[in-house]
Every structure is written in structure tokens, then in C-alpha cells.
Design goal:
By secondary structure, the protein is α+β, with helices and mostly antiparallel strands. The chain has three helices and five strands. It has helices at 5-10, 55-76, 127-140; strands at 18-21, 25-29, 39-43, 80-84, 95-100. The protein has a five-stranded antiparallel beta sheet with strand order 1-2-3-5-4, with helices on one face. The two termini are 31 Å apart. It binds zinc ion (ZN). Residues 1, 4, 6-7, 46, 92 line the site of zinc ion (ZN).
Amino acid sequence: MQDCLFCKIAAGHLPAHKIYEDDDILAFLDLHPIRQGHALVIPKAHHVWFEDLPEALATQITTCAQRIARVMKPLYGVERVAMFYTGIHVAHAHAHVVPMHHVHDVTSAAYLQEGLSGFSAPPQLPGAEMAQIADTLKNLL
Ligand SMILES: [Zn+2]
């Protein structure tokens, strides 16, 4: 993947502030951090979507994110660390690991109806609709 930014970083052709590296994965600081320490964990091999990662590789990424989170909690004095894939920005699967100083650090617009000081739960769906959604997903898994 010659044009992939993260493949170039994984191959060492572009610089990054690396915090962990082994044969299969790499963790480095996000250039546009939500909070100090905001890290990305990527597979060295090019996979666009997290759901395309081989299970063992996905587990390596999650395990690395767990180790980073355990370090971040005392370092930044936070109760929780977020870990998520969004698939935004670079089309190479990357897990964000972000120390959470504020409940809205990695929030959805759906939670912001009362602004930053509130936390609005999105409306619940009717039970029948929830059951139908669950059935659809369950049957497809
Ligand atoms: Zn790539």
C-alpha cells in the first residue's frame, strides 16, 4: 500500500512518536491528540477496517491498548481510558487510546443535546423495535 500513511509509518519511512512496537503492531502518538497521551495502535499489515483484522491480530492490538491504558490511568490521574476504532481519516485500521479527563472527551453528538455540561442519553426505542433489531443482528451473526 504505497500511498497509505500508516503503512509508511509502520515501515519506518515516515517518523512517528512510537511508544510500542513488535513484529506485528505499532503504537504511536496521534498527531492531533484529544488529550495528552492520545495514542494509536495499528497493525503493521494493511487492513482497512477493524472487522477485517485476523482475530489474533485484533487481540494483539486490544492487549496493547490495555497495557497502555493501565499505564495512562496513574500517569494522567484518570478513572477511565477510551479505546475505539472509527475508520475516519486514514484507511488503515487504527485503535485510538485516549485518557478520559472529561465525560465528553470522545463523545457522540447524540449525547450533547444539553451541551458540554450535560450528558443526554439518546431516546430509548420501543421494546418491539429493539427486539426486531436484536433478532436481525442475532440471525446474521
Ligand atoms: Zn496501510
